[in-house]
Amino acid sequence: MQIFEDIGNSFGVAQCLQCLGDILQITNQYSAATINLKKAMKIFEGIGDSFGIVQCIQSLGDILRMTNQYSKATIKLEIAMHMFEDTDDFLGVAQCLQNLGDILRMTNQYSAATVKLKKAIKIFEDIGDSLGIAQCIRSLGDILQMTNQYSEATIKLEMAMQMFEDIDDSLGVAQCLQSLGNILRMTYQYSKATVKLEKTMQMFENIDNSLGAAQCLQSLGNILQMTSQYSAATVKLEKAM
């Protein structure tokens, strides 16, 4: 980036700032990511680069979504989606629809979420994006789980898990296994649930996902509590805490 600045290449500077922002976002450094992305967007606006602008808006919307600022995230993502539509960027449209669907899911607006996610799946299918399809199917499975439609949820989650396995997405596989384990727990199939959740916890530990591992410990502790194994439950729950 320093070289681009020295030679007055604004486009190069903006691209570097955008990439740095995306790296910071991926590593959960959201405040620093936001600063870099806003700087990049300002430069893109100055040189009239619509594609750079919309990518930054999308990333800023994703950061707001991931920090639970759902109203602000929705505004950003809807702006980005319309900009992607104007330039026939179908991947961008699908990603915005997916994230808007996930916001609706997280805020318990399940019917509206389902509509968005199904639209996103259709576009992902048209452009051959297996990861996008799998993520949306998993979200639909989670919605079915949250609405106590456990059989249908299991079908969706197993379908998504197979797709994640096919593309070697360990996080996706682990998240599906976790949801499947929780369905078994909620339907009182404690032995099977324990097997799934212990396997999932190991996978989360292998990819250094502390939150996922803690959630599995909590679920395992709940199973032990429900089966009157209070000492063992206490150990799990205190470890999760």
Automatic annotation (TrEMBL):
Coarsely, its chief localization is cytoplasm
This one is known as: Tetratricopeptide repeat protein 29
Subcellular localization(s) per the UniProt record: Cytoplasm
Q: Which domain of life is it from?
A: Eukaryota
Q: Which GO terms describe its biological process?
A: cilium movement
Organism lineage reads as: Eukaryota, Fungi, Dikarya, Basidiomycota, Agaricomycotina
Q: Which UniProt keywords apply?
A: Cytoplasm, Repeat, TPR repeat
Q: Which organism is it from?
A: Armillaria ostoyae (Armillaria root rot fungus)
GO cellular component terms, A-Z: cilium; cytoplasm
